[in-house]
Amino acid sequence: MRIAMVGTGYVGLVSGACFSDFGHSVTCLDKDAGKIETLNTGGVPIYEPGLDLLIAKNVAEQRLDFSVDPEKAMREADVIFIAVGTPSRRGDGHADLKYVHAAAEEIAGLIEGFTVIVTKSTVPVGTGDAVEDIIRKTNPNADFAVVSNPEFLREGAAIEDFKRPDRVVIGCEDDRARDVMRELYRPLYLNETPIVFTTRRTSELIKYAANAFLATKITFINEMATLCEKVGADVQQVAKGIGLDKRIGGKFLNAGPGYGGSCFPKDTLALVKTANDAGSPVRIVETVVAVNADRKKAMAQKIIDAMGGDAKGMTVGVLGLAFKPNTDDMRDAPSLDIIPALQAAGATVRAYDPESMKESREMMPDITYCDNAYQAIEGADVLAILTEWDQFRALDLTRVKTALKTPLIVDLRNIYEAGAMRAQGFVYHGIGRA
Question: Is 28 an active-site residue?
Answer without folding.
Answer: no
